[in-house]
Amino acid sequence: MRILFVHTIGRKKYGGGERWVVNAASGLQQIGHHCIIAGKGNSIFFEKAMDQGLETFDINIFSDISIYHALKLSHFIKKHKIDVVISKRRDLAVAGLAARWGGRLPVIVRSGSPPQKSLRKHVFLISKLADGLVTNTKTIRDIYRANALPDDNFIKVIYNGMLIDDDVSAFDFFARHPGRSIVLCVGRLNAVQKGYIYLIDALQALKNDYPDLLVYILGDGKDSRMLENLANRKGVKEMIVFAGYVDQPAPYMKGCDVFLHPSLIEGMPNAAMEAMAYGKPVIMTNVNGAAELSLDGKLAQIIPPASHTAIAETLKKVLDKPKEFEPMARAAKKHVRSHYTFEIMIAALDDFISAKAKAKLG
Length: 362
Hints:
Elements lengths: L1 E5 L9 H15 L3 E6 L4 H8 L3 E4 L8 H13 L4 E5 L3 H10 L5 E5 L7 H11 L2 E4 L2 H8 L9 E3 L15 H4 L4 E6 L9 H11 L6 E6 L5 H10 L6 E5 L5 H6 L2 E4 L8 H8 L4 E4 L4 H4 L7 E3 L4 H13 L5 H14 L2 H20 L1
Parallel strand pairs: 1-2, 1-4, 2-3, 4-5, 5-6, 6-7, 8-9, 8-11, 9-10, 11-12, 12-13
Helix pairs in contact: 1-15, 3-4, 8-13, 11-14
């Protein structure tokens, strides 16, 4: 089949949603489909797609509903004989109309995070323009079920699949920071949404008793300068390294002592999942997919969101008695590697797409 992914994002943004599109399209192409990604040209997202040998189509959808872009996309669909359209939630109105005008193709919408705003509008558009919905947690599925999308055949939970690199060398933190205990965070620098303001408050509470603690944050974003200034005002500047965006965080995950995910809003926490796959003790806030991923706290330390006290107290426990958390980390590694593989994700996505295409043709 010829599958078109519609996913517009800022030129400098490349997060979990964009990574999923590139990996899903690449995986589907590897098993025989032809995948094309429509989005904003001259972007990091397109660079990653092209690195994987994926075809791209430059279209800048700048509003939720744009007749001009729907017509432009429908022309592309006809010309390139697209069989299936997969869209992110924000682009669904344009992608859905384009699919109708381009040949009444099956449309699948992906929702990788819980809807925060305009839930009724999203549900309405999904019910009118989509033939199926893919999400990555049961929690998100249940939100849609509770809002008039109850059909199990319509909604499919497909867990994110990881690409594990066991051959990569661990980042040598000791060479740069001898004697420091390394806590790693991965995520864009959104001060509130990713919980970094609470992390900085937690470090203020820990700095006297744990002077060797060092937090490495991989990511960039709009709040980078604000967070650096906040860390300076709170007196913890020397306890944080803002390392910026890193294309491959695996070496850092393999080299750190503890992985911390303090986010307030999340779908399935991919970075925490990856850290678990590398056998690291993980602390993460209890938002959306965290309980599902950790088997209700059996495989990771689950803490309440927006609590600097919870971050500080849990870091103390893990840093003081690291041996006690090794069995949990080993169990997490085994579980994640057997249930969240790239191959499982691609097979499930292929089955769902094929079923929707067959139903539409029938």
